[in-house]
Write a structure and sequence with these properties.
alpha/beta, TIM Barrel, Alpha-Beta Plaits, 2 domains, globular, Putative pyruvate formate-lyase, metal ion binding
């Protein structure tokens, strides 16, 4: 079985306990305004072009098997209607002006990468984390890797936005030691406005995981002017306090580190006017959620 990934990050300490290897799967059903990995949203491999790196050699135009690339005032631009995403242009570009985002791998490929770090897992209590994108966008591929990791006694974490069919969660839940579950906005219409989907399925899946006794840590990206208001914090606190497991909560301050990615990919960055929350404001929000009997931390 094969899947599409776009990155592997080793020695991660923010994606679960211990030292971890994080596998980033491509594809996400959400399009959050503040997404830090815009290259993850498409489910397919794709080529990005950075004209500021282009040296005008024309190698990409010459090698393109479908003649999709032509010299324009903006550099060597690919016609999106003709480009097949084969990646040949990125392969021959001497200046790395073209880059292939996403590659097809099989379960064996991923296991070989994971097993390179088993020594670090054993010494630190770490393991492997599957992130994205949304890893449950590739449920069959994800499930096979999780089963193989469980057979090898490798600790597994799935970082999810929660928007996936219940059947997908049912299939992987027995093989996941910890879910890092993103919770963004409680009002369904406001959630739809900023992420493109309602949160009803997300909340339903979170309730189900809690009912099953799954280990869950809630991660809330704090976006000033979007979800840091009193109404949303109160609704969040009430919902989480009503879950059987009463999960831990991690508040993640917004930062604009992905701004450069959007520029490179030619995607408008809709959060350009947003400034990160101060440490004092993050503490206020943490204290507010703690009033519901929740264990709350910030950062990470």
């Amino acid at each position: 079985m094969t899947g599409v990934i776009f990155d592997i990050k080793r020695y991660s300490i923010h994606d679960g306990p211990g030292i971890r290897t994080t596998i980033f799967l491509k594809g996400c059903p959400l399009s959050c305004w503040w997404c830090h990995n815009p290259e993850s949203q498409s489910a397919f491999s794709e080529v990005i072009y950075r004209p500021d790196r282009c040296i005008g050699c024309g190698a990409c135009e010459a090698v393109c098997p479908v003649g999709a690339i032509a010299l324009t005032q903006r550099g060597y631009v690919a016609d999106p209607d003709r480009c097949t995403g084969c990646g040949e242009c990125a392969r021959v570009c001497p200046a790395e002006a073209r880059e292939m985002i996403g590659r097809v791998v099989n379960v064996e490929d991923i296991l070989k990468e994971i097993e390179k770090d088993v020594l670090f897992f054993d010494e630190s209590g770490g393991g492997v984390t599957f992130s994205g994108g949304e890893p449950l966008s590739q449920p069959g591929f994800l499930g096979e890797i999780l089963k193989a990791c469980r057979e090898r006694d490798i600790h597994t974490v799935v970082d999810t936005c929660g928007f996936a069919p219940r059947e997908a969660f049912e299939k992987i839940e027995p093989f996941v030691r910890l879910f890092l579950f993103d919770l963004k906005i409680m009002d369904p219409e406001i959630h739809r406005n900023f992420t493109s989907v309602s949160n009803e399925l997300i909340l339903s899946n979170l309730q189900w995981l809690s009912d099953q006794g799954a280990k869950v840590i809630i991660r809330i990206p704090v976006i000033p002017g979007v979800n840091d208001n009193e109404e949303n914090m109160e609704a969040t606190g009430k919902f989480l306090a009503g879950l059987p497991s009463r999960p831990e909560v991690n508040l993640l301050p917004y930062h604009a580190s992905a701004r450069e990615k959007y520029r490179r990919f030619g995607i408008p960055y809709r959060m350009a006017d947003i400034s990160p929350s101060s440490g004092e404001r993050m503490k206020e929000l943490s204290d507010r959620l703690a009033q519901f009997g929740l264990a709350v931390s910030t950062g990470g």
